[in-house]
Amino acid sequence: MSQTKKKIHFAWWVLVGIVIMVGLMKGGINSAGGLFLTPVTEDLGIGMGSLSLYFSISSIVTMVFLPIAGKLMGKYDIRTVLIAGTILQAGSFAMFGLMNSVWGWYLFCIPMSIGSVFVCQMAGPVLINNWFKKHNGLAMGIMAASGGLFGAILQPMAGNLISSEGWRYTYIFLGVLVAVILIPTIILTLRMAPQQKGLQPLGMDEVKSEDKSTAPKGMVNKGVTAAIARKSSAFYFLVLFFFLITSIGSFGQYVAPYAMSLGYDIAFGGTAMGGWMVGSLIGSLTFGFLTDKIGAKNTAMFAMILGLVPVIMLVTVGTNKTMFALAIAIYGFVVASIATLGPLLTSALFGNKEYSQIYSTAVMGLAVAGIVALPAYGFISDITGSYTSILYAVGVMLLINVVAIAFAFKGKKKLEQAGHWN
Question: Span of the secretion signal (predicted)?
């Protein structure tokens, strides 16, 4: 710490840029989509299921474009790529405000999703691994928490704007605001590698052995090969975990419509989503800490069991405003496990030998869940006129995930006994 008093390593400025970028895009744009569902469907006479299909299209585009994005980031200047991604994502979001047909969402969600791949998913982990050899886990945790931090401010603001100025104005305002803040931030703070600033990564010469569990790939070389991992029962249960936890988290897009179905207004829906973001912020930091203390398996099981609490609260006392807001905050806390526990469970089950190859395949469960769950919830609400059956399904998925985690670690034991873990 005494060295940082002389001069702050540029890695920390890179992290500031990542936090602003991920926070604005995840907390201000990606997570805000659900706030617009009810106002748009009511104003344009579109079914909830029909409009929410754009979430599926987004997930498909993301799945297809992920491998392409990695190549483009390695070929072109990172600032150019991220500015282009910002314009695509924020600009497309703003364009929703000019649409009069559901086809506008189907069309503009494509460039929005392409931009999001760069800005929300790829850039942060790549830049942190390039710049941080020490404090890598801390930096990842801060990045994961940024969406909750910014969302706690932007979600209530968006809900109030929709209530006072309308959904069209709010789409355009949020899209332009994010782009205006983010483009200069990218120019000033982000560089692909320390060598571009004549520096070494932070802590390159002082990484300690206790940092092994969060070290970047290549620093710890124990575990299972991707070829062996993908044939194991542990892998299939991990994919199931990813699919179910993402399906559980997908309910976040329906918090505002659910609130309005209970008689609350859109402004309260935004406030409730702000509580979700606060819970997500705390959860992102808590789950990493708990994993260090009690292990990834126990932490994941705790998260799934805790998830039953907000489900029960929403079904039984959801008509009470305070209880509804509290339940949504706890729900957001639990859903933070998607970003935090997913990577930690992968490394706990398979080590770091070929972590990136294993993780990149396992997270296909996330993409598939996005394609299936989001429109399914919309169509279920259209057919039943209620969100109660969706909440029951969420409760069942939480219980299945407890079983999936247990069987995944049984699969790990089989890999160890077969001599594949080395």
Answer: none
User: Nearest Cα to 70, choosing from 126, 133, 14, 130?
Assistant: 126
User: Closest Cα partner for 362 from 246, 215, 243, 247?
Assistant: 243
- Alpha-carbon distance of 182 to 408, in angstroms, equals 40
Q: Alpha helices of 295-387 — where are they, by DSSP H?
A: 296-317, 321-335, 337-350, 355-362, 364-384
- Identify the structural domains of the chain with CATH numbers, from first to last: 9-195 (1.20.1250.20), 220-422 (1.20.1250.20)
For residue 118, what is the DSSP state? I
**Residue given tokens 């729900």 in the structure block:** 331
Query: Is the entire prediction scored with pTM above 0.90?
Result: no
CB 341 within 8 A of CB 287: yes
State the residue for tokens 């355009």: 172
Q: Amino acid letter at 17? A: G
224-282, pLDDT tens digit by residue?
Answer: 888 999 899 999 999 999 899 989 998 988 888 899 889 998 889 888 888 888 898 88
